Amino acid sequence: MTAHSLRRRATLLALVLLSACATGGQNGTTPARPRTRTTVHVQNTAFAAYTIYVVTGTDRRRLGVVNPASSADFLIPQGIVIGTTSLRILADPIGSDNVGSTFNIPVTEGDVVTVTIT
Predict the structure, then answer these.
(1) What is the pLDDT of residues 50-92, one digit of tens each?
(2) What does the chain look like in DSSP terms, one character per residue?
(3) What is the pTM of this model?
(4) d(Cα 80, Cα 3) in Å, to the nearest integer?
């Protein structure tokens, strides 16, 4: 074998090894697992419709409306629950100023928070 033939084989072997190492996720990393969404289940046994909010610190985000004598499920927007987060659920009756709120609840990604309005 000549020196040129040895260099060529070494180059081919290096390319094969590099391509074998690059079969993982994007840029050679493993793909990230999708984040689990946190939900709020609201059971409304009252005779008024309520607008439901999630509150973290001074940030209040509207989740939606639950009608009288019904229930609804709401997804908490991504970025609010990271790891374990303390939050409150606020229920604002439509046409009234008698707002109700939970205490601070420690919530982890993927939890289902159940609130009953009576």
Answers:
(1) 999 999 999 999 999 999 999 999 999 999 999 999 999 999 9
(2) --HHHHHHHHHHHHHHHHHHHT-SSGGGSPPPPPPPPPEEEEEE-SSS-EEEEEEETTEEEEEEEE-TTEEEEEEPPTTT--SEEEEEEEEEETT----EE---EEEETT-EEEEEE-
(3) 0.71
(4) 62
Specify whether the CB–CB gap between 9 and 83 falls below 8 A: no
Tokens of 54: 């999630």
Query: At CB < 8 A and 24+ separation, what contacts does 60-66 make?
Result: 60/90, 65/94, 66/42, 66/117
Burial of 87 (0-12, 13-18, 19+ CB in 10 A): buried
CA separation for the pair 104, 76 (Å, rounded): 15
Within 10 Å of residue 118's Cβ, how many Cβ atoms?
7
